[in-house]
Amino acid sequence: MPETETNSAIIAAYERRTPGSAAAALRAARLFPSGLTHDSRYIEPYGLYISRASGPRKWDVDGNSYIDYFGGHGALLLGHSHPQVVRAAREQLERGTHFGASHELEIAWAEWVQKLIPSAERVRFTSSGTEATLMAVRLARAFTGKQKLLRFRHHFHGWQDHMTSGYANHFDGSPTPGVLEGVAGNVVLADQNDAEGLSRLLETDRDIAAAIIEPTGGHGARLPIDPPFLSALRELTARHGVLLIFDEVVTGFRVSKGGAQAHYRITPDLSTLAKILAGGLPGGAVVGRKDILDLLDFRLSRRNNREKIAHQGTFNANPLSAAAGIAALEIVDRGDPCARANDTAQSLRRRMNALFEEERVPWAAYGSFSMFHIFTNPEKRAIQPSRFEPLEVEAKALAGNGQARVVQRLRLAMMTEGVDLSASPGGWVSATHGEAEVEETLKALRQAVRLLREEGEL
Q1: pTM of this prediction?
Q2: What CA–CA distance (Å, rounded) separates 312 from 199?
Q3: For residue range 194-236, what is the model confidence (pLDDT) as tens digits?
Q4: CB atoms within 10 A of CB 145
């Protein structure tokens, strides 16, 4: 771990509050690169170590309580430890965690996916969202006979080789470390919300098998999508024989119970799912048109004289994940937690902006559905938080936010006040967040910005 900056009252307060996390971080540093098991958990001087969680809250190893906006990296629409999901997982745990065989739960799970997701003519389960996007790209190439994948800058689709350039860096498409030039060279990068540029690109390059997009915008809607662009994308891909893949790993069952595609009434050829899909347990899926997923079918591949795409996976449709996923999707369908989370997030964003105006902080809270982000305004633009329009800000400013030190201090100050934000900074709101959590978050935010001002960061 790096040495502590002793001149920061925020860091000093965080360290006083979290000695147990500091000790755990020292142990982890001897085991893991950077002491981490997920890049998004990186923060200096160290991150929190959590011992338990329930509803919208979690508790660290020192016993401190936090309102949680990390939300299991977006997986926990229903909050932590939802009783129905826990009961389903516990009952299945007693029956068995792995049968090495087909089971009825995988059928019921797929039936729920098919009921809720408009594009799901067929379903193939995977163990993660990254595996789902990998399979979607392979299917698209095999189905079309074309080589290239079109992606949009700043959009995240997992850590597989086709997805690394153009998300956080290498915006020219050059390969990141460990990725072959031949792989990166078959990825075409475009800019979201630029329909004219997309049209020109598809007119000139006839070897594009598929286009993949986060349908609410890059970085989990930190770069918001202009909805007419989605319609243009669907029309242009169809016109040029390019398959359209909606990456709904984050947005599936969150934007609405049918995902972003149901909300926007745009049906892609393929969709990828994970996170909420498995009720907070590991699990993903690629779903879509039957004729495309038929490439995974033994009998149809023989009948059509095509080589079948092989697909194994030790934990595909794992019974434990299936049980939790069924319980979660039943709740999504029955009680509309999406609407509750969306409404709470909208209130939180609005009241954060009112706070920024009261405190004369030139920042803005924005986002869509149950997601929120805080724009820390690195270029000191003249903005009115309550009227901030992110579509008018260039992608680079929104994506990078440009103030790593300020964001770090903000997050540490919020954690010291009992609120855990994601790294954007921002987070995901669950259906269990309510007025009490909003009030506590606003109180913490007011204290945090005042501390940042005292340290000369505002």
Answers
A1: 0.96
A2: 37
A3: 999 999 999 999 999 999 999 999 988 999 999 999 999 999 9
A4: 8
